[in-house]
Amino acid sequence: MVRNWRPKKCRRTTRLQTNCKFGLKVFRNNYFLIAKGIIKRRRIFPASLPFPTDDLPDMLRISTNAASIAITDTYDTQGSISRIEQGGEYACMHKPSGRKRKSLRRRKRNRTISFWGRRSCEHPVVSVIIPAMNEQKTIRDVIREAWQVHESTEVIVVANGCNDRTAEIALAMGAQVLQFDQPLGHDVGRTIGAKASKGEVLLFVDADMRIKSHYLRPFVNAVLKGTDVALNSYRGPVQRRQVHPVILAKHTLNTMLKRSDLLGASLTAVPHAMSRRAADIIGISNLSIPPLAQAIAIHSNLIVSAVHHVPVGRLNRRRGKSSGQDLLQQVVIDDHLQALNWYLSHTDPRGGHNDLGRKREWAGR
Amino acid sequence: MEREEAADPELFFYKSHLQQSFVKWMNTNISARPKYALLKRLSETYVQGYSKRGGSKKRGVPLLLNGSAAAVVCASSEEDSLHEMLSELERLPLQEIIVVLNGCKDNSYKITRSHPLVTVIYYPKLLGHDVGRSIGARLTRADAVLFCDGDMVISAEHLAPFLYAVDGGCDAALNDLNGFLPSFKHQDEVTHFKSFLNMVLGRSDLGANSLTAVPHALSGRLIREMDAQHLIVPPKAQALAVLKGYRVKAVYAVNVFSENRKREANTGKGNAVADMIIGDHAEALEEIMGRRGISGFKGSLSRKDVAMRRNAI
């Protein structure tokens, strides 16, 4: 995927906030040459081929393969590249020591990408899983809050079908990014992220909702204290007589599972957390269909509880609708039907509810 | 049959001069079939005039019915209200009243026998909820069948609209309880299930109305074609009726909440009756998913397509 170099746009939006003069980063088989805030993008050739150094501008000489890069020779008079992080797909430059920091105002103004100096831990306790599709507006804040959930955290961003800079920003924020060119579909990213995670607690958040970390911590703490699945106790607007179908479906499913005390709490809503044990019992692939996962969790006697209230309804972005109906509504209702179907096929056709001694045979055939 | 022929025509309201002359008068004077509100007023006025002329006060509610009508009443040990309930039903032009008595330990049988129009079906043991409805429905051949409970006295004026709606072409005329419901927050789980079932059936306009609630009326066509056995589980019958394209409509509002007899089993959260109704809805949902597949929507998009449409730039 080689895109044309658009100097104007690049200059405006893709500037690294570093004081170095030259740098290089590799991202999605492209390398970016950075010189005085200007980014130039070229394609990196597959690892099997020798890298055509002749093609490079004079100021940088690079020997690389697609997996790891190192800058061997810099044609830099001012010597501003102080450290290069190797490995992975990303090389990044830090502010050289001994240089004067920019004033606060100045720093604030060009904060398009600011490098968050955190990276995922080796042995994380908490894995924050963030499925994202074209969420460049919010992903930065979401990841920043995610890092603050626990001291030992890994942040996994499942960037699928992105046409914008979501993945780029996520990388710059130090998250582990799993990329997919095609959209995976709603909640499928949860499965992908959960598979890649290493933590004991899986915290699921959405990339389009900026939720402060102190709202996220109760979920993690609840799981650390022994809850298997910690749900958001958000019910949605329930003051009216006829509510949104999704709210109705959530309440109905919980009642069917004989957990009407959960009210409208659902795995469909973020944020929620679960232990790794719970994820394994539920089956990681089932996390793509949250109501099904909830049915399995409750049916397998996991400790499921609504631990904290985060009013996510207000944070939901307004999306495109088709004939006045949110498209996602159908998917969510179908999910709930699938969960009900699973539950009924694993119990009895009455879902384990009593019949109060109906003598059906008396009615004849 | 013998009994009917031998009796005085005034003994049965549907044969009475009042009902016959009202139908005749309606057919000659009113060309279009009126709405129930208008029919009710016409009927009231007609009865008033008829009483004045005849010198004795008439209590009947004459209705413009093209087909035959019947009522099915299920009761067990409800002698306090049964007599009154049957008296109200006798004010309607019904050809037949079927009372299914089950598990009665009181005088119900005697009371029921004192009403000439009534056919009694007596079971010494309890049949369980709604089984009586199915048995009663199977026995009648009427074009419109009204279903009531013996524990609740509802006046004939409030029962008539259900019969009238079925006679006018509706297949299932439900009691419109939506207006009596509190906000969702304060609704019980059973109401949630009723709304959910309608939503899954694509009939959100029905709100929380259900065949579980009485009174309601079904057309004879529906009962015969659908197999009366399904009426044991009312939500299932409702689901089948909607799926098969019968006309299901909420026609009239009768407040049954305040009149419903409070028992230990049907009060409080998570009571046994509520649990049973939830089980009924489970059966109905299973039936729907078995017939239509898990996806509740025609031509619904896959997760991927929805994501593409919603989140694409």
Number of domains as seen in the coordinates of chain A: 2
* Uncertain residue ranges of chain A: 1-21, 35-40, 42-99, 106-115
Let me know the largest β-sheet of chain A: 7 strands, mixed
Largest interface: A-B, 61 and 61 residues
Multimeric state? heterodimer
Summed up, what is this model?
By secondary structure, chain A is α/β, with parallel strands linked by helices. Chain A has helices at 7-13, 104-109, 139-147, 166-172, 188-196, 213-224, 245-256, 276-282, 290-299, 327-346; strands at 22-27, 30-35, 38-43, 60-64, 69-74, 126-132, 153-160, 176-180, 201-204, 229-232, 272-275, 304-308, 321-322, 325-326. In chain A, helix 9 (290-299) runs parallel beside helix 10.
Question: What does it look like?
Answer:
With 365 residues, chain A is an alpha/beta fold. Chain A has two domains: 7-109, no CATH class; 126-317 and 324-346, Spore Coat Polysaccharide Biosynthesis Protein SpsA, Chain A. Helices cover 27% and strands 19% of the residues of chain A. Chain A has ten helices and 14 strands. Chain A has helices at 7-13, 104-109, 139-147, 166-172, 188-196, 213-224, 245-256, 276-282, 290-299, 327-346, and strands at 22-27, 30-35, 38-43, 60-64, 69-74, 126-132, 153-160, 176-180, 201-204, 229-232, 272-275, 304-308, 321-322, 325-326. A seven-stranded mixed beta sheet of chain A has the order 8-7-6-9-11-10-12, sandwiched between helices. A three-stranded antiparallel beta sheet of chain A has the order 1-2-3. In chain A, strands 4-5 form a two-stranded antiparallel ribbon. In chain A, a hairpin with a 4-residue loop joins strand 4 (60-64) and strand 5 (69-74). In chain A, helix 7 (245-256) packs parallel to helix 10 (327-346) and helix 9 runs parallel beside helix 10 (327-346). Chain A is globular, with a radius of gyration of 25 Å. Chain B has 313 residues and is α/β, with parallel strands linked by helices. Chain B has two domains: 2-54, no CATH class; 69-292, Spore Coat Polysaccharide Biosynthesis Protein SpsA, Chain A. Chain B is 43% helix and 12% strand. Chain B has twelve helices and seven strands. Chain B has helices spanning 2-6, 17-29, 36-54, 79-90, 108-113, 131-139, 156-167, 189-200, 220-226, 234-243, 272-292, 303-311; strands at residues 69-75, 96-102, 118-123, 144-149, 172-175, 216-219, 248-252. Chain B has a seven-stranded mixed beta sheet, sandwiched between helices. In chain B, helix 5 links the parallel strand 2 (96-102) and strand 3 (118-123). The mean pLDDT of chain B is 89. Chains A and B meet through helix 7 and helix 10 of A and helix 6, helix 8, helix 11 and helix 12 of B.
